[in-house]
Amino acid sequence: MNQQDLSILSLLLHASLPVQLVVLLLIVVSVASWAAIFRKYFALKRTRSLNEDFERDFWSGTSLNELFSSAAQNAKFAGPMERIFASGMREYQKLRERHVSDTGTLLDGARRAMRASYQRELDAVEQNLSFLATVGSVSPYVGLFGTVWGIMHAFTGLAALAQVTLSTVAPGIAEALVATAIGLFAAIPAVVAYNRFAREIDKIAIALETFIEEFSNILQRNLTAHVNPATVTPAAGR
Q1: Which residues contact 146 (CB under 8 A, 6 or more apart)?
Q2: What does the DSSP assignment read for 200-225?
Q3: Fewest CB atoms within 10 Å of the CB: 28, 171, 216, 229?
Q4: Are 198 and 40 in contact (CB under 8 A)?
Q5: How many C-beta atoms lie closer than 10 Å to residue 149's C-beta?
Q6: Predicted confidence (pLDDT) at residue 237 exceeds the cutoff of 60
Q7: Which of 2-11, 71-80, 120-129, 194-203 has the highest mean pLDDT?
Q8: What is the overall mean pLDDT for the chain?
């Protein structure tokens, strides 16, 4: 190849078949990684917004039964915090309907229901995060495999030449190094996005755990005072 042919596209077109397959795989993985990044970004943004909206309603002075009724009607479009609240209230009301009067049993049942719901919500929020971690850790090695194979192929071809110059070595080495470059291009955004999303998910998890404790405290105060939860608002017990 002459100097004008040393573009990435030309290098890939003249590369060996294994190198081309490695590059094609990395391009597909990179596209899938960017798609996962955008989906996760908008999903976390929506989750934060729904949690903030429900928390604002929760502390606005609305009664627990009204909040539970709204959560039941809005279950399909509710956020994680609202679904956790609905799980706790549902279990609490079931135990009350069975005439369970022990405070510890009521609180323990509601807390266990909220914890189970919390784990389901956290699993849903963390979806596709492992894919980004895999792309970030594996892609450089896949690119390196393509580079090693390309260099082996290049030196095998040079063995038949009587005289080897830089102009004969450079194209083969360059096309091999393209695989490593594309591997890094796929890995770096995935690693950055994974770290950012992991921090955001940790913040969401802490907010949900805090809500579970606050709601449990409200239920405990209501039970201690022997007051019907329908007449007590979260804001009053804050």
Answers
A1: 18, 19, 22, 23, 26, 176, 179, 180, 183
A2: HHHHHHHHHHHHHHHHHHHHHHHHHT
A3: 28
A4: no
A5: 19
A6: no
A7: 194-203
A8: 83
Cα separation, 50 vs 78, whole angstroms: 7
Contact 124, 79 (CB under 8 A): no
The answer to whether 64 touches 109, Cβ cutoff 8 Å, is no
What span, in angstroms and rounded, lies between the C-alpha atoms of 192 and 100?
50
Question: Alpha-carbon torsion 34, 36, 39, 43, what sign?
Answer: negative
Longest dimension (CA), the chain: 97
For 113-168, what is each residue's pLDDT tens digit? 999 999 999 999 998 899 999 999 999 998 888 888 777 776 776 666 556 555 66
Sign of CA dihedral 62, 68, 72, 74: positive
pTM above 0.85, yes or no: no
What is the average per-residue pLDDT within 104-119? 91
- CA distances from residue 31 to 25, 73, 75, 203 in whole angstroms, order as listed: 10, 38, 33, 28
Question: Taking the mean position of all CA atoms in its chain, how far away is CA 158?
Answer: 47
Tokens of 238: 């804050």
